[in-house]
Specification:
- With about 290 residues, the protein is α+β, with helices and mostly antiparallel strands.
- The protein has one domain.
- Helix content is about 35%, strand content about 20%.
- It contains twelve helices and nine strands.
- Strand 7, helix 10 and strand 8 form a beta-alpha-beta unit.
- Helix 1 crosses helix 4.
Length: about 290
């Protein structure tokens, strides 16, 4: 499957196929079960601009019909976004990089313990409240209640948060042309050229109608958001390319029950530059970043 935004809209066969009424569908990718769940579809999508509504609806229809790149998800050679992690820097370096990004407002940090609410991020506070509610019984009696699972927390947010759309949303890009074919183009114009096939599953997809942003959210109960930031940033960049909307606003959200970070996926470029000050570790995503 090539670019969704073009092929889906041009395919009469796809448009005329009946769409299952289910809001949940299971995939087995490389032997691991992923359950895509969709809720409040029309309520949330109706808040979006018309162009985005059409593309998002089409994208969800493809998933519900299982017309995704199954071969890529089941190919062990395909690159996974979950492998994009910052692992070669010491803890001190992480703190220095984070403090700089916070100071420059490249990352906004929201604490669940905060007593004042920033209006534009009110939905994030609501998300943190729901996440904490998942742990209430467990915190009362840890010998009797099981610790909330990853799926339990995400499903609770999907059902309770007004602007939540889906969980475990599959995304993919199929390798098109070699990066070397584009090296002589002026202005680093790498449009529609992917140097690697990539797949991933977005934990939680939301829509922020105040900022007109699609939100790619990832639940990391253990924290260490900076380590996994490349993974979440790539989810956002891939979804933006899949939908093929030039002016689509996409933001990322890393969260657990204690805090959340919200940032643009382009912050990854800033992090790449900052990491050069601490030994410039080998980063597998740097070359790919130019092609998305």
């Amino acid at each position: 499957m090539a670019i969704f935004g073009e092929n889906y809209l041009k395919s009469k066969r796809t448009q005329e196929t009946s769409i299952p009424s289910t809001s949940s569908i299971q995939f087995f990718h490389s032997g691991i079960k992923y359950e895509f769940k969709l809720a409040k579809r029309q309520n949330v999508i109706s808040l979006m601009p018309k162009q985005i509504q059409m593309k998002i609806n089409g994208f969800f229809d493809l998933i519900l019909r299982k017309q995704i790149a199954i071969d890529l998800f089941n190919d062990s050679k395909t690159m996974r976004c979950s492998k994009f992690r910052i692992t070669k820097l010491n803890h001190g370096s992480h703190r220095i990089i984070l403090e700089k990004l916070l100071l420059e407002n490249s990352i906004h940090q929201i604490k669940s313990s905060s007593t004042s609410i920033i209006p534009e991020f009110e939905w994030i506070y609501n998300l943190l409240v729901i996440t904490n509610e998942c742990f209430e019984d467990y915190n009362k009696d840890r010998n009797y209640f099981n610790k909330p699972t990853h799926d339990f927390v995400l499903t609770s947010i999907l059902l309770k948060l007004n602007n939540a759309l889906s969980i475990e949303t599959p995304i993919w890009l199929r390798k098109q042309k070699k990066l070397t074919d584009y090296l002589n183009l002026e202005g680093d114009n790498y449009n529609f050229s992917y140097s690697n096939s990539i797949t991933g599953h977005i934990d939680l997809l939301l829509y922020d109608d105040i900022g007109n942003n699609l939100i790619i959210a990832d639940y990391k109960p253990e924290g260490y958001f900076l380590r996994s930031l490349p993974q979440i940033a790539f989810y956002a960049l891939i979804l933006r390319r899949l939908l093929n909307i030039n002016d689509l606003n996409v933001k990322c959200l890393s969260f657990n029950k204690n805090e959340a970070w919200i940032y643009k996926p382009e912050v990854l470029k800033e992090i790449n530059e900052e990491m050069k000050k601490f030994g410039n570790p080998k980063l597998p995503w740097v070359r790919i970043l130019k092609t998305i």
